[in-house]
Structures are given as C-alpha cells and as structure tokens.
Amino acid sequence: MSERKAYPSDVSDAQWSLIEPILLAWKAAHPSSSGHSGSYEYREIMNAIFYQNRTGCQWAYLPHDLPPSSATYYYFQIWRKDGTDQAIHDILRAQVRAAAGRAEDPSLVSMDTQSNHAAVNVPAATTGKDANKKVPGRMRGLAVDVIGLIIAVVVVAACVHDNAIGKQLLDKVAQAGTVQTALVDQGFKSSVVDHGADLGIKVEIVKRSPDDVGFVPQAKRWVSEQVNGILMLHRRLVRDYEALPANAESRVYWAITANMSRRLTKESTPTWRGA
C-alpha cells in the first residue's frame, strides 16, 4: 500500500490477508490483453470503496490520496457485474459462520424489507412510493441468518409489494440449497408461502401479538432489524444514491464484507456517530 495517513475505513493488514487471495485469484483469471498489470493496488481500490461506503461522499469527492474515481468506479462496476463483490462476501460469511461453530450455509433465514429515500440523481423509472410508509424511493429486501449475516439482498422501487420482493429473495436463498425455513412478518402474504413451498422452503409468517405496544423484538426475526441498523452506519446506504438498483445491492455486500472482516480479525472501526 502506498505511504499515506490511514483512514478509519481502511482495511488492516489482517483484514487484507482475508481478501487478497480472492482478488489475486480473480486477477489470474482475468489477465490483461495488453500485459498491463494496472496502476493501482487492489487494496487501495478496496480502501476507496470502503471509504465511500462509510462516508457517503460522491465519486468526485474521493480524497486525492486514494485511487481516482475513474479507477475505483471501474473496479466497483466490473466486480459487481461478474459477481466478485458477492463472492468475497460469501467466502467471508462462510468463515464467520464456521468461527461461530455453525455450518457454512444456514438452514433458517429471516426476511424483511426497508424503504429508503432516493437521491435526486436516481432515475424515476427505478423508484416509487411505499404506500404504507409513505416513503418515496426504493425498497431494500434482506434475507439474513440467525447471527446477522446476509444471505440475499434485493433492491427495487419502493412501490413494489413485499410479496414480489419475498419471492425474489426466496429465489436467491434457494440457490444455497440448505435453507429449509424462512421467517417473515405479516407484510408477506400466502403467495410468498406458496412460492417457498415450490422451492422446498417453509415460509412461516410470524404474527405480532395484539398486546404488543411499539417495537417489540420477535425471536429470530429481530435479527433482520439489527442488520438494517448496521447498514445505517454506512452513510452511502442511509439514502439510495445509486443510479442502478444492482449498484445499491453491491453496496450492501461491501458494507457487510467490511463488517465481517472486522469480525474475523476482532478489530473495530470508529463510527461516524462518535466522530
């Protein structure tokens, strides 16, 4: 890594040792036709992506001592398009689960949705208004395991019903081949239950007790709420700034990748709340 003062979001040596082998394998599988090895270290590209995720800055506002926005955006896009961002995330997730004494892939997930306001640059064609929460923008759907790790993420217009999001999440969850049960709230209806049955996944609608007042955590289901809180520590995810929903999904994977790398190395990063 080039000599410069580190940012709090930079990957440490220990964290980089987890990610570097994956990107070196990617590089070996994608040799340059011109033989050019690239002007920027992958570690610094990662630092730029993590910096933007944590601070929420625009591409043009990346600090001058990080790789330029053109290079960072190039790798952000190419790694998103070929699935490298999710591959890194999934490999680290398997390691975190193994460290917790669990199988690499879960048998149970909790699914939930969250509405997010969209920035002015987000195309109107990919946004809508959540009729229930009255939020204009996009909807983020998550499927998480019982220890708060993401199994699948879907980003769509906020006007899309939970049922449609639930079906998309189930399609992604089913790819793991190990999930047997999915817990959802009452916003998901019988069509999601039926879709899950078609995929071999039992969808259980966890009903809220009529005696509950305010927010009352539900066993196992509350973890998805916790993950939404973790994502809010990354300012780029507080509002949807991405022109493409797929980019917004990639942002989630990078955020949790940063979180899991710290979990595995038992390190921490100061939050902007305490800055």
From TrEMBL:
Tagged with keyword Membrane: yes
Domain Transposase IS4-like, residue spans: 123-201
Residue ranges occupied by any Insertion element IS402-like domain in the UniProt entry: 11-89
Keywords: Membrane, Transmembrane, Transmembrane helix
Claim: Hydrolase is one of the keywords in the record: no
InterPro entries (UniProt xref): IS402-like_dom (IPR025161), Transposase_11 (IPR002559)
PANTHER family with a match to the protein in the record: PHP DOMAIN PROTEIN, TRANSPOSASE
The protein's name in its UniProt record: IS5 family transposase
Species in which this protein is naturally found: Kitasatospora cinereorecta
